[in-house]
From TrEMBL:
SUPFAM superfamilies per the UniProt record, alphabetical: Ribonuclease H-like (SSF53098)
Pfam families, per the entry: Dimer_Tnp_hAT
Protein name: HAT C-terminal dimerisation domain-containing protein
Residue ranges of the region described as Disordered: 709-732
Amino acid sequence: MPHHTKFSHNWLNRTDTEGRNVNTWLKQGDSISTFKCTLCKTCDLDCSNQGWAAIVQHMKTKLHLENMPSLKNNSIISIESLKQPTSSTDGVISIPQLKLGNTKRPITFDFQEQVTKAEAVWALTVAQRGYSFNSRDEIGDVFRHMFPDSKIAQEFSMQSRKTSYVLSHGLGSYFHQELVKCLKRSVKFVLCFDEQTNNQDRHATAAILKTAIIDSLKADGLELNQLLMLGRDSPFINLSLENMIDNEMKKIGSGLLKLGGCHLHVAHNGFKAVLWEPLHEYFLVYLPVNQKVQVQNNDRYERIKETLTSYVIKIRLQFVLFLCENIFDRFLTLFQQEAPLIHVLHSELSSLYRLVLLQFLKTDYAGDKVGGCLLDLDFKLNEKQLNNKHIRIGNENKLANVKKIYHTTAEYLKKNLPLKNSFLSDVQILHPSYRSVEYSDEIVRIARAVPGLLSEREIDYSRDEWLIYSLDNNIDEKWYIKEKKKDCSGTELIIYHRIDYYWNKVLNITTANGFAKYPTLSKLIKNILIIPHGNADVERGFSINENLVPENRSKLSCLSINGLRSTYDGVKFIGNGSSHKVPINREIIKSIKMSYSLYKKDIQSKKKVSENSEKENIERQQAVEMCKQALQEEDELLLKQKTLQSELHEATSIIADASARLQLAIKQKDNLEIHRSTILIDGGNTKSKAVNEQLSKVTENLIQIQRKRKNNFGQQQQKRQKTLTEESIILN
């Protein structure tokens, strides 16, 4: 028969297998026959049958054993005695004592490290606030004047140059490496990117971007197969880049998850709001006053002026404002958030498109349609159109051809919205309202859709774990419902927690043995929630960059800019946007202390590169001069060679002509002619021999000069390659 053992508080006085008091992690559960392990963050574990043995069994679980070392580093306050105060035989009252065991002491810094800590906080502030380096040159004097009794203020020193190298070679590098460490611990990550055009208004090619991305990942020791997807906007160049990266990944047995470009851009492009007043002020007020010459007798300006002074254009812009406020604002505002929203993207895009259709279509035709069914509608069917009286155009508008405007917007959205994307449709089940066994097929499809994440066995496990999750009674409504309230009309409004808050709670549930209850779902869902719902985060980065690097800071080096941005992001994510909330640890102190030596080494390296480059330029110029001289000598020899060849030809012709005359004279027995011909032949042979000797020397000299020129060119190429290799090693 099973026992009905109750949790005993006497157990709290016992020790574990390593001699530590179990009261550092053991406590009674919500019922009298259960216990909890605060170290493993378990739910209620049953001890009604086994009693203390159930706790011993939990101590031996893998999760508990892995968590035990953390007790050595954490501050633990335990009650040594839970008895009431008693009097001893000698009259001394014994009272319960607080015992501080195995504590992780707060970081203690010596005086110089405290000064460095203060300098670190100031450097973090400079990066987070976008302060210029030069404007802070006297900040040490300011602090000493403000805090004359502070020894730290007396030693504080952060001039512009020091601030610069602390950020570029210290803090910036530290936060960058922390990000890389985090990515290396992750199974997958998403790379979101966008680019600003250069001064020539040109974008980099897809091939250049591909090389830059792959080289960056290699430089940080990140594996290409960790890349889950590219978050991008919609230009064709980015589509080409996505295909190139995908092809590279397929070579190593992986691939990208492809969900198209930024869907916020689709909404933006489907409807572009233009406000009346800015256009009116610019074209009708500013230009006539400030650019009189340019607008005089300008046909284009006159057409714009005529349009803006027309009553019709104002009505059209009022209609634009109506569309913005009533259809697009909510969607665009929602997806500007940084919270994970991939699970609601499909439904919100569906609602957006349906809302556009309902402005000009009958409700019974489009009102109940969702997802891909909306794309199957023929919104141009005459019998499904609202009559002009019922088309929504705003209370103040009287606009003709409004149906054509709606049709144009609907046509663009229909062409570009991913409402038939099964993956986006399936990931809706991550919302708590879809917690049901009927969606087990969807979780399998999601698992199969993510390239290279789960094995076939893990995919099967994902279905099993989803079924368990669907029936789990430990999931609290408070995990997903943040607040319930009523509006002015009495309608109940539910405010949900962020989806990652909810799943963090769910995925931390453990079994009775202390193991994670949903290990496969954890692996899958964590990688789903990193999928971006748009490119808003990246585009916000442009605004941050412009704040950190305005026009008056154009001389900042790339290292300084990257250091500023890495530090800014570090403050944002680690310090919640406040520099003083960033925990200053010994690694940060070390990075700042080393920053000067790294900066000095970098300066020396760049100086060496510059010297090498200058030396190479001198050698190149010398080589060019030598080449010019060799070419000049070569030209002279070629000319001489040509002249000698001409002379040789003449001598050969003389010999040939004299030989013919000699043969004829012999036949005619003309001794005088025989004598003359013989003299000509001897003279031709002598001339030919002399010319051949000169021609041989000239040809030999030509070969030597050409070989020398070729060798010099090869040496220059080798030197150039060696210099580039050395520069790469030095700069990296």
